[in-house]
């Protein structure tokens, strides 16, 4: 179990859910976790370097297009309904957060999402647990703070047919990334681990970001 960032798909749990959700459609498994970059710090160096190449970019884009056409052939609605039904069952680990991940994956694919589903997802966000600071892996359920705004912003600006890249740098306060802003958010100059679209957003987020704002040379990381 590990977490190498606080946004969507930057923790093992999100990636695990994505993998499990792919099997939701029986007989026609969707390769959903392959749409998410494998940035895990435990991945071998060669693998991490490969994910940065143009060669991989082509493979990824082709894969995303395939998933989109699968979802848009009618499978998408069926998939979303199934995930919703499963989340209602008692003892489902991660509960309704799985629906959030399903929505994020549909946006990642650039699939058509019914307006009522977008509305449903927006209403679901406040009901999901959101950790604002450090959490032990066992307590690391639901969103982390920048992941929540990232998800909400993606919903608000979603255009079907345009895959949403959740890995692009996004503001830790408002969740916007370059596609929304027209310019790339800037890195926190102290820790290099957070991005902001403006000084206004950076100031508003400071109280929350302060404990995690550790210069790289003082950082001790342990991926467990
Ligand atoms: Zn911002
Ligand atoms: Zn910082």
From TrEMBL:
SUPFAM superfamilies: HIT/MYND zinc finger-like (SSF144232)
Classification via Pfam families: zf-MYND
Classification via InterPro entries: TF_DEAF-1, Znf_MYND
Record keyword Metal-binding present: yes
Domain of life where this protein originates: Eukaryota
UniProt domain MYND-type: residue ranges: 171-213
This protein's UniProt keywords: Metal-binding, Zinc, Zinc-finger
Annotated protein name in UniProt: MYND-type domain-containing protein
Species of provenance: Bionectria ochroleuca
């Amino acid at each position: 179990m590990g977490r190498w960032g606080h946004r969507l798909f930057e923790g093992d749990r999100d990636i695990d859910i994505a993998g499990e959700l792919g099997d939701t459609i029986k007989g026609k498994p969707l390769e959903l976790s392959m749409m998410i970059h494998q940035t895990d710090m435990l991945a071998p160096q060669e693998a991490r370097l490969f994910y940065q190449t143009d060669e991989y970019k082509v493979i990824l884009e082709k894969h995303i297009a395939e998933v989109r056409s699968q979802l848009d052939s009618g499978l998408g609605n069926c998939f979303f309904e199934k995930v919703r039904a499963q989340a209602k069952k008692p003892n489902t680990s991660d509960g309704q957060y799985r629906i959030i991940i399903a929505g994020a994956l549909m946006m990642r694919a650039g699939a058509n999402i019914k307006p009522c589903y977008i509305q449903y997802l927006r209403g679901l966000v406040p009901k999901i647990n959101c950790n604002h600071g450090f959490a032990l892996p066992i307590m690391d359920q639901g969103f982390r703070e920048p992941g929540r705004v990232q998800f909400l912003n993606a919903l608000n600006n979603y255009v079907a047919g345009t895959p949403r890249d959740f890995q692009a740098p996004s503001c830790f306060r408002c969740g916007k990334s370059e596609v929304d802003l027209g310019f790339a958010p800037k890195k926190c100059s102290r820790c290099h681990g957070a991005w902001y679209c403006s000084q206004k957003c950076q100031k508003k987020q400071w109280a929350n970001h302060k404990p995690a704002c550790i210069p790289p040379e003082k950082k001790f990381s342990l991926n467990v």
